[in-house]
Amino acid sequence: MSDVYIPGVRSRFNSDQIIEGLMNVERIPRDRTEQGVENLRVQRGYWQEIGRRITSLRDSARFLYSFENPFNERLARSGDDSVITAVANRTASEQTFSFSVKQTAGADRFLSRPLDERTTRIEAGTYTFSVGNDEVTINYRGGTLRNFVETINNRGRDKIAASLIAVQSGKLSLLIESKIQGAENRLGFSADAATLAVNIGMMERGNDTRQDISITENTVRKSGQNSANININNGALITPPMSTASLPFNLTVSADSPLVLRLETQTRVETGEALNLAQPPSGPSVPSGGSVTYGGITVENAPSTAPLPEFTPPAPPPRNDDMGVLSLTFSDGTSAKLPAISDSNSFTARQYNLTEVARGKTIVSLNVENSNTHREVTIGKVEVLDPTSTSGGLRPLNAVSTARDAIISMEGIEIIRPSNSIDDLIPGVTLNVRGVSERPVELRVTGNVEAVKDAIISFVGNYNLLMTELNVLTRRDERVIDEISYLTPEEKASMRQRLGAFASDSTLTTLRGNLQRTVTAPYPTSLERELALLTQIGITTGGSRGTGYDPSRLRGYLEIPDESILDAALETKMPAIKELFGNNTSGEGIADTGVGFNVNELVRSFVEIGGIVSLKTSTIDSRINQDERRIQNLDRQLAAREQDLRIQYARMEAAYARMEQLSNSLDNFSQQNRGNR
User: Fold this and answer.
1) Full-prediction pTM beyond 0.70?
2) 124: left (phi > 0), else alpha (psi -120 to 50), else beta?
3) What's the pLDDT tens digit per position in 249-275?
């Protein structure tokens, strides 16, 4: 049935098959060109992968010696994170400090008595709150407790906040708090806010206990060897060495009094010899010898004399450094020393709890007893106050916390700051005060060893990935792949497709050799006898068991067989390791040698703009474009050729059909003639 010919449906001579066979022969150049394009695309992908590997290696190499290198990173480690922590930046120096935290900074947080939310209503009015010198005024239209809280939070301007706390079942207490820490940032209430605070049991009215102690010529009592040089300037009392001054005031301190004494101190230390306070005696007063006048002539008597022995000044007193210069005198004649101050070139605020010092006695004076021989002590802005009282004489009834400064001691020097975050004490270090400590806590600023180690391991890893790519592409030995045990079967299959793809490319072979020589060469460091090679910090170039490579075949990989060797080197030789990867030997401040520097210089020409990888891929792209244009031309030629063949075979079929029709006509004519006979 398949041999039956149906005109117009099936070709008598199988023209389609013949044409297809002829066209397959014609398409051979075109198919070869298309396969070449696919091969070029694969090669371009290989070069792009090489470029990515080189870029990764270059980035990790530059990171080890650039201005962002991890060798300059710093870590601050605290002996007790619950007391003090710190964050160090790259400008910090490696050093160790001892801190004690006497007081953390806090902000005012005041709580009302329990309120019934259903019946409590906040009346309309002008509610003014203050935080330090800043005021927040809220014109409230009246409403519920929750609405009042929302209004405060919306208009608090990052100064104040409010919340409701369920302290009892079915009742809520209103909490109003300052968002700014520090003793100078007290939370105050005025206008309708003060009335509200009293009405809801948050505050009570009391007397303003603040008392300023005046420093004037009339109030200061001077004494001591150098009392003549005691000076008062702009309300500050300046006591030179070996002098004593007293500020009289009268204050009775009860046993449970919250009163504190606040003052500012400043010191100036002489760097020369001790002051010689002894002066030569003036001697006796000798009267004039008189004169005689006669006849207009005056004759003066010879002056009287009182010969004095030569003055020999006493030896200067031995140097005395005593920071316990402040004391209080009581009405019973006793006195008590205040905690020692510390040297400071500018005024530093200090605060003393009078209850602990006075113990129920009446204070009659504040004394500055400067027995130092080389130190001038200045006292300024002395005041006594109740730290729990707010402006306007209001006293909190339920203070959750009170505004206070952080008080810490660094190496025995007392430091006061209004915030628990202190960034102006140690250059490059931000301290975070967290809790009070009974004993000193050590804070160490060190290099970031882990960051350096991670950077070195990253460099080794990127180097090995590039070396793997180069070994696979430039060699035809499958053992190169079999030696790498960490690859999955799919990854090994992919590598076998790339095996030896650029075996004849000397560029990559040369790069591989140069990389091996670069990482094994010695480099000058400050510890050149002990450290000049990567192997001296535990980075080897030989095979080792357990690292994923066959130890019998060395392909130029870097390995870290024992991380403890690297760890020990980082702990003891960090500066030299930094120089090993990037060192400045010219004195110009810029690295000019080292493993990282030389690796970067070696591979830079491959991945920079217009570099070798870019040139290779652009050349391949040009060939691909040429071949694709050739394929387009061949497709047009093949289409025309196929059309031509179909026309020719169609004509042949038509001619044959006409001949067959004529033959049939002749046969019919002959048969008719024979029938007529």
Assistant:
1) no
2) beta
3) 888 888 777 788 989 999 998 876 555
